[in-house]
Design a protein that fits this description.
Layout lengths: L1 E5 L5 E4 L5 E5 L4 E2 L8 H16 L4 H10 L18
Antiparallel strand pairs: 1-2, 2-3, 3-4
């Protein structure tokens, strides 16, 4: 695996040998279950759209179906998702 980014808290986004992207938690030194993206394209699509929605450049309703289709519905979780602070 190799790192393609960090979250600012010590955790890294890593590309696994099967092409999936996951979060490597530095404290536990493990790939945590439920943190994986299908591939690098899905990984890059997700934060770009997330930040665009947060910045008001994209309307959430326009990209919400895509988050679900790409298996990133957790971003939309009403109380714990990345976009929860928008409402």
């Amino acid at each position: 695996m190799w790192s393609v980014g960090a979250d600012g808290g010590g955790n890294c986004f890593v590309v696994l040998t099967d092409g999936r992207v996951a979060v490597w938690f530095h404290e536990e030194e493990v790939i945590e279950a439920g943190t994986q993206f299908d591939n690098l394209d899905v990984f890059l699509w997700t934060p770009v759209r997330y930040y665009a929605v947060r910045a008001g450049v994209l309307d959430l309703a326009e990209v919400e179906p895509d988050f679900r289709t790409l298996g990133q519905a957790g971003v939309l979780a009403p109380e714990t998702g990345l976009l929860a602070t928008l409402t």
